Amino acid sequence: MALSFETLIEGLFNYSFMGQQTSTQTIRVAFMCVQNAGRSQISTAFAERERERRELKDNVEILTGGTCPADHVHETVVEVMDEAEFDLSGRMPRAITTDELESCDYVATMGCSTLELDTSADVDVRDWALADPDGQKLDHVREIRDEIEQRVIALFDEIEADLE
Prior knowledge:
The protein is of the alpha/beta class. 40% of the residues lie in helices and 13% in strands.
């Protein structure tokens, strides 16, 4: 049986060099809080780094937003993330919709949300219950940053296992 050119090309896209099927699954992860100006921005930055480190750019989509977004990312958050080699100075808080959240596989709330998703949505919602960095001293914001980093790494360990 002869293969058409289209069938051959499709096969090349669907199988790796070793003949194993490649993963085309995309996992959507959202980090949300009320203002999208602190914890969810920190979470997103660490998630983007983990996605890059683990070479999951084609498999993980990251969303962030707030239910009542602020005008800018908190200055203390920009400062402590700069210490960790992240530039958040150009990021802008944004609103996130229920539809966006219900399309996710994982949603991490930061402890300040009254999130209510449709019960038929198959979303793993986690309330990380983190202190709000707004108005906090730098040392406390660093502690929050470090806690978020560990939680994001643990979440990506789970995501990576889901993709296997």
